[in-house]
Amino acid sequence: METVPDTGQSTVDRRTLRRVTIAGSVGVFVEFYDYAVYGFMASTIAAVFFPQQDGTAALLLTFSIFGLTFFVRPLGGVLCGYLGDRIGRQRTLVIVLMLISGSTVAIGLLPTYSAIGLAAPLLLLLLRLAQGFSAGGETAGAMSFVAEYSPEGRRGVLVSFAQLGSYVSLLLGAVVTTALTETLGQEAMTAWGWRVPFLLAVPMAVIGFYIRSKLDETPKFQQLRKDSGPASNPLKEALASARQRKAVVLAILIPVLNGTGYYVLFTYMPTYLNKTLHFSVVQGLLITVCSLVAIIIAIPLAGRLSDRIGRKRTIAGSALSLVVLGYPCYWMLTKGSVWLAVVGGVLMSILFAGHTGVIHIVLVELFPTRLRYTAFALGYNISTAVFGGSAPFLMTYLISVTGNGSMPAYYLVLTAAVTALAVLRIPETAHTPLKED
Questions:
Q1: Which residue has the higher pLDDT, 65 or 88?
Q2: What are the start-end ranges of the H helices in 87-154?
Q3: CA nearest to 356, candidates 267, 421, 262
Q4: Which residue in 318, 334, 322 sits closest to 414, CA to CA?
Q5: 13-423 carries CATH number 1.20.1250.20
Q6: So which residues are the signal peptide here (predicted)?
């Protein structure tokens, strides 16, 4: 059987490597599928779960629930990371996947505001908090899992394939939402059609559980068990030394652009195009779908590029290009032409791919195996909570207060600048082994 060497430390056959990459992708897919559906159907969810005397207020409440769930992600990341660093990545990721999937399906079964009043949005909030908690443990675990199997020289591209799951889920969410809206009409979508995308999580969960439950623990974690043993308290170790504290701070600052890019460029984009720029729902989703196809193609190329020229150059180039071109790309969106908007969205997507396709391997390589899951999850989820999850609410609020439709462009440029400065503070890790201690 053909194998892939890992600098003489371990040997992984190519079939296992493919299964590992799929296993990493599938949980990320399920995690972000829910965020995609919720974001794309924000206007419908606002109509279903809130009183309609004030449409803007209902939309703000919908996005506030979206944002609040992110603030339990660091807690979920730390607790899931503790499990992952203590009992192993594989078992923890199976548990996380089941919690994410169960919460998503439960949302599809909720009664509406017209049926039970204020209890409906409260139940929605509780289930979204459960999703946020479990999602806090998904990304760091899945990316660590794939990276700890991957051979040197290919870690970037293989982890970027795992990241594809999040954008494929966005694409599926956009296609499903568009197809249902066009087929059923808005009245039927508000009555019952909104449930269908959430209930589709059932087959996804079954497939994901099967794939993840059949895999072994990563070679790196197995070796850790044989050598020094897992950390007794990975969170304490992650914050105990100045070196690790610095790494955690960098894990907060470097992904700042990722939160903005993902949740402003994609999750919030259909609402922005419809409510602020007055494209139709279908036109807004068409622009978003074209942007998603572009980034899905570009992400593996970015991962491969980072294996060749380095992580720092790839991410810094992406961030600086968005500092320069972010506003002109948004300007194209505002001109009222669908095809000009497609050009702007696709260009932003390609530029952003250099960040989102590489950010996770950068964070994996910042930390040693014994505390990688916990430290990665802590930094990344704080960054995502502050700069990503709050973005749709913040953009909706700022646009409603100022009347300035360019707020997302300013936010994108600002966060790109923060990422560009932060990434200069890390060593290049593309061509070195994963840290062991």
A1: 88
A2: 89-108, 113-116, 119-149
A3: 262
A4: 322
A5: yes
A6: none
